[in-house]
Structure formats: C-alpha cells, structure tokens
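Here is the promised in-class demo. Please do not try to memorize the tokens; focus on the logic of going from shape to residues.
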C-alpha cells in the first residue's frame, strides 16, 4: 500500500525539473499517483476496508487539487503530466 524509498527516489528522478527538485507539483502528483494505484489494487481484494477507502479518496482529492493548480499556472505542464502518468481527464 505504501511506496518504498527506492520507488519514491525513482519517481523523483523521473519527474523532477532540476537536480535539487523534490517538491514540484509534477513530483508530488507522480508520488500520489503511485500511492493511489497501490491502494486501488488493495481495495480490489479487500472490498470492506473502509478506512483504506477513505484514505484513497483523500489522496485522490489531494492529487486533483495539485492538478487543478498546475492547470491554472501552466496548462502545458498539466497536459504533459496527464499524458506521462496516463491519468484520465
């Protein structure tokens, strides 16, 4: 359900904009997307885990807010991250 340190480092390396970038919206969205995908798989096998479902909804809404911010600030970066992560919408 959680992502490993190696996976997180890999995501940061893939989506960062500069060498010291760890907190740009693209990096945050990529990490949240990885967590959402993990929780989605967990919920497919454990359908009655409502605490996990609540956490998933909170992660999705946080990712949505970051995507809305990115769309407002720089629409091209928004389209790029949507395409790279294969997020619908």
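The designed amino acids, position by position:
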């Amino acid at each position: 359900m959680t992502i490993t340190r190696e996976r997180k480092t890999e995501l940061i390396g893939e989506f960062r904009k500069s060498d010291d970038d760890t907190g740009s919206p693209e990096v945050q969205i990529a990490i949240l997307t990885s967590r959402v995908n993990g929780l989605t798989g967990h919920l497919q096998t454990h359908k009655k885990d409502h605490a996990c479902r609540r956490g998933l909804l909170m992660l999705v809404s946080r990712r949505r807010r970051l995507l809305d911010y990115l769309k407002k600030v720089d629409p091209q970066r928004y389209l790029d991250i949507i395409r790279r992560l294969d997020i619908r919408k």
